[in-house]
Amino acid sequence: MEIYLDNAATSHPKPECVVEAVTEALTLGNANPGRSSHTRAIRAMRMMVSAREAVAGAVGAEAEDVCFALNGTDALNEAVKGALAHGGHVVATTLEHNSVLRPIVRMLQRGQAELTLVKPGEDGTVDPEDIRRAVRADTALVVCTHASNVTGAIQPVEAIGGITREMGIPYLVDGAQALGAVPVDVKKIGCQMYAFPGHKGLLGPQGTGGLYIQHGWDIEPIRQGGTGTSSHRLTQPEERPERYESGTQNLPGLWGLNAGARYAMARLTETMRIEAELTEMLLMGLHELGAEVYAPAARRVGTVSFNMPGLTSAQVTDRLDGAGICVRGGLHCAPLCHRDLGTYERGAVRVSVGPQNQREDIEALLSALREMG
């Protein structure tokens, strides 16, 4: 029997309502939303509107301020490249995923941007005052992950937002590991942009995601094309969401995301309780086994990284896979975080629980690790 503990990569299993929604979109809703005026196309557009409302509600925003993306990485590329269309200095953290770092580094290589990186403290969280100290007169963007995809540490995104508001600097938050795991309110955070995937905490299909862009604030779109509106013009529409949504949308994925987001938000309190209990049980068990645990933060999502004495992360994950337990080893697309942790060469084993997991899953994991000792 398979035990799935890799929810930080993608959530599994998807709720049945998500599976049913994808099928419904491929049958009842199978038309190109916004491109035609026949009944089927209008039905498809209504499905898109409902999906946008669902994900907007998940982040505490108005629907017109949420633009769909190909995935979380695509949303982050839009945010970074759009905000830095005219260049500038960026402040980011060493906790960031490559989906943030690589677009910035690409711009560095082209001489279009400069970067200052802020390291977290021993508890795995960034000091907001370190962000303030890193800001320069030409800083055009501050970027911070909401929760580390390696340690699970929840970052002080609201405190950082207070600083960026005070200093008048655009602020981007990567919500990949937080949305669907903790309450998110973009207005309380004070960010101009909040990027997220649909296939993790929101329980939707892969190949979905979105970007919140604060009302009245604009960035340069990174792609142009057909939108179904203003077809007489050869320039990209200025109106949202069409400004950022060129091409045919992934309606089956987004209708599945609609179902997943509504399901996840209705059960968020219960999800938080389950994940907190299982994470605490996991941490206690790992300490008893003498594992090296990289999870000091008091506030965290259900992600824990560790290493077993005398074994590489690849050896541990391979043995766990042989026991039918799905986890992830390696660098988790966050190499600078692993440099800080001293695990760059060895990697780390990452366990990430989800709302479907039970105590028996953690017991089976700890038992398999115990046999490795």
Task: Describe the fold and architecture.
There is one protein chain. With 373 residues, the protein is an alpha/beta fold. The protein folds into two domains: 3-13 and 268-372, Aspartate Aminotransferase, domain 1 (Alpha-Beta Complex); 16-266, 3-Layer(aba) Sandwich (Aspartate Aminotransferase, domain 2). Helices cover 39% and strands 14% of the residues. The protein is built from twelve helices and twelve strands. The strands form three sheets. It has a seven-stranded mixed β-sheet with strand order 2-8-7-6-5-3-4, with helices on both faces. Strands 9-10-12 form a three-stranded antiparallel β-sheet. A two-stranded parallel ribbon has the order 1-11. Helix 4 (98-109) links the parallel strand 3 and strand 4 (113-118). The protein is globular.
Low-confidence stretches: none
Number of strands: 12
Radius of gyration: 21 Å
CATH architecture of the largest domain: 3-Layer(aba) Sandwich
The total tally of domains equals: 2
Main β-sheet, spatial strand arrangement: 2-8-7-6-5-3-4
Mean pLDDT: 94
Q: Helix/strand/pairing class, anyone?
A: alpha/beta
